[in-house]
Amino acid sequence: MKTAVAKKEIESALANRFGAVFERREKQPGEIVPTGVPEIDAVLNGFPRGAITEIHGAASSGRTSLLLSALAFATGQEETCALIDCSDTFDPTSGAKARVDFDRLLWVRCNSNLERAFKATDLLLHGGGFGLVALNLADVPSRNARRIISSWWFRFRRSLENTPTALIVITPVPCIRSCATLVLELMNESIVWPSTVSLVLDNHDARVTMRRGSHLSLVEDSTRQRGSYSFALTHARLLERIRVQVNRERPIAWTVGSAKFESVR
Question: Can you tell me the mean pLDDT for 237-257?
Answer without folding.
Answer: 50
